[in-house]
Amino acid sequence: MAISICFAILLLMSRISYAYECNYTSIISFGNSLADTGNIKNLVAIHHSEPPHFLFPPYGETFFHKPTGRCSNGRLIIDFIAEGLGLPLIPPYVGDKSNLRKKEVRQGVNYAVAGATALSSSFHEARGVSNPTTNASLQVQLKWFKQSICPTSSDCQHLLQHSLILMGEIGGNDYNHELRAGKPINEVKSFVPLVIKTIIAAVNEVIKLGAKTIIVPGNFPIGCSSSYLAMYNNSDTKMYDNKTGCIIWLNKFAEYHNQLLQRELEKIRKFNYHHVNIIYADYYNAAMQLYRSPKEFGFLNGALKACCGAGGPYNFNETVECGAASSTTCADPDTYVSWDGVHLTEAAYRLIYRSLFKGSYTMPRFNSLCRS
After folding, report:
1. What digits encode the pLDDT tens for the residues 220-276?
2. What is the enclosing helix (H) or strand (E) of 202?
3. Are 164 and 85 contacting, i.e. CB atoms less than 8 angstroms apart?
């Protein structure tokens, strides 16, 4: 009898979802399509430019039931962070500025723009590579930030002391645009240190303005992206990881970026800012769990084939993007890791969020900063 009671108590405890109390009153976000909650949508409307494919259905169908500018079928990692902290979803900077002058600014602002790069557009244009989506590089986003909510140092310091700063993911598009333009990997690898330097400079800048907690994500395993798998489709089995089917050399490239980023973050932790929480978010390994064991996480249709696309072994076609009239969408996106071949499904982002912010894939661990 005693044993059965103890078992019942243990079973009940195992089902409790432990909450963490964190003293963050707002989220300030910079980055690209992995975090954009509507800036690109509003920029398109303002400039009357050609809307990109992710502003059409089926984007947003799962949670919002309409396209919001998010590059997924639903919520992103930043949305799950906000929900986990008990905050409203973070509004985009571009749009109705009257909102930003009211209470919403105290709960956070998102400056991330789909397609954004860490380096300036002029850097890539000088190399013969244009950005087809936006010129809102990291430096542009920092300028928006300082103009909108940091008009004086005292205003900025007070807000940032209690804010969670999400610095990225950024840098991935610096490589994506170049690789898709046909640049060889060794040439692209040569400017990774410059991308890292730009990210670190942005981290230093927000710390000087008053930030106390900054999360800096690394790059995802791009060798597992349906778009790259379709782009570099090859019969050479040595190019692919036996366990995941991902492209080995592309993942090694992402690891190289992440290693350099972690090394530089450790330097500023050690020598500059002992009073600041500088957290590395290991997007790479948090995502690799899903690619190594998709079915264990409920992704019954696997990790490499896109839910929304236009055929082929990975359901990705560069000329017929998700949202085009001739593209098709799977019946159950929750059973796929990849949404459109470039971005992930809401279900994948949710699991990655849990691994990062409730698990062990942040360094130092994020939940160690909060009271359980």
Report:
1. 999 999 999 999 998 899 999 999 999 999 999 999 999 999 999 999 998 777 889
2. helix 192-208
3. yes
The span from the CA of 222 to the CA of 171, in Å, is 12
> Which residue, 190, 164, 168, 219, is CA-closest to 23?
164
**Is 72 known to be catalytic?**
no
53 is catalytic: no
Q: Which of 26, 33, 121, 355 is catalytic?
A: 33
Active site residue 33: yes
Task: Tell me the percentage of the chain whose pLDDT exceeds 90.
Answer: 79
Closest CA to 39 of 110, 121, 140: 110
Query: Domains in the chain, please, with CATH?
Result: 26-365 (3.40.50.1110)
More confident residue, 100 or 43: 43
- For 203-226, write each residue's pLDDT tens digit: 999 999 999 999 999 999 999 999
For the beta carbon of residue 22, count every other beta carbon within 10 angstroms. 18
Rounded Cα–Cα distance for residues 110 and 30 (Å): 6
Express the helix, strand and coil content of the chain in percent, nearest 5 each.
Answer: 45, 10, 45
How far, in Å, CA of 78 to CA of 143, rounded? 21
DSSP 122-165: HHHHHTT---SS----HHHHHHHHHHHH-SSHHHHHHHHHTEEE
Q: Catalytic residue among 36, 79, 334, 340, which?
A: 340
Q: What is the pLDDT of residues 296-355, one digit of tens each?
A: 999 999 999 999 999 999 999 999 999 999 999 999 999 999 999 999 999 999 999 999
